[in-house]
Specification:
Blueprint: H1 3-25, H2 32-39, H3 43-49, H4 53-67, H5 81-91, H6 97-113, H7 117-144, H8 152-171, H9 179-194
Helix pairs in contact: 1-2, 1-4, 1-6, 2-3, 5-7, 6-7, 7-8, 8-9
């Protein structure tokens, strides 16, 4: 392994550890020492890669976001747009332990964004990327004729808003909203505009 490869591997290990620690105890309780210990590196090495907690938090959020939902069509352009969109919806809800960790990180970001401009700009940028991700799947369905012509931006905004609102209820273990209810509610809300069945697809 080259020096550059070792540095990249160390950086990835630190970011993974930071995501886990922040999700576990909250950003306000995180110290660089705790992240270094969890990553199995020295505090000096951690500071070599990230000189402040704030920069580490921003990089951890970006890292977590980048790991979410990559290659949902498996590289197969023939995957129906409805299936792809359903997979995106599932990925934007806390459907497994890894995604629940992502949700905890998002919740930390929402709180910080209320009082920190850098966090607010990061949140807005990540939402722009989510909007483009959802919009791309909708546009794909419209282009193929699988979805009816629609206001792609409005549908994308609606999907993100529903995922956020219902996802929080799932995270709270609200007995009125489980994952199945969240998925079916989102799908039935967008189905009329897309001209598709309101039943959530098998993915």
């Amino acid at each position: 392994m080259t020096k550059a490869e070792r540095a990249l591997e160390t950086r990835e290990r630190i970011l993974k550890a930071a995501c886990e620690v922040i999700a576990d105890i909250g950003f306000e309780n995180v110290s660089m020492r705790k992240v270094a210990e969890h990553a199995g590196v020295s505090k000096a090495l951690l500071h070599y890669h990230f000189d402040t907690r704030e920069k580490l938090f921003a990089e951890a959020m970006t890292h977590s976001f980048a790991q979410t939902g990559t290659d949902l069509d498996g590289g197969d352009a023939d995957v129906p747009a409805g299936v792809l969109l359903a997979r995106i919806v599932r990925t934007m809800l806390p459907t497994d332990e890894e995604l629940r960790q992502d949700w905890k990180l998002w919740q930390e970001l929402w709180v910080r964004a209320q009082r920190d401009d850098a966090a607010r700009h990061l949140a807005v940028d990540l939402y722009d990327q989510l909007h483009a991700w959802v919009g791309g799947a909708v546009e794909r369905g419209v282009a193929s004729g699988e979805f009816a012509p629609c206001d792609v931006a409005a549908i994308s905004t609606l999907i993100l808003a529903l995922c956020d609102g219902l996802g929080i209820r799932v995270m709270l273990a609200d007995p009125r909203v489980d994952l199945s209810t969240a998925q079916s509610t989102i799908w039935s809300a967008i189905a009329p505009s897309l001209g598709i069945s309101p039943a959530f697809p098998e993915t």
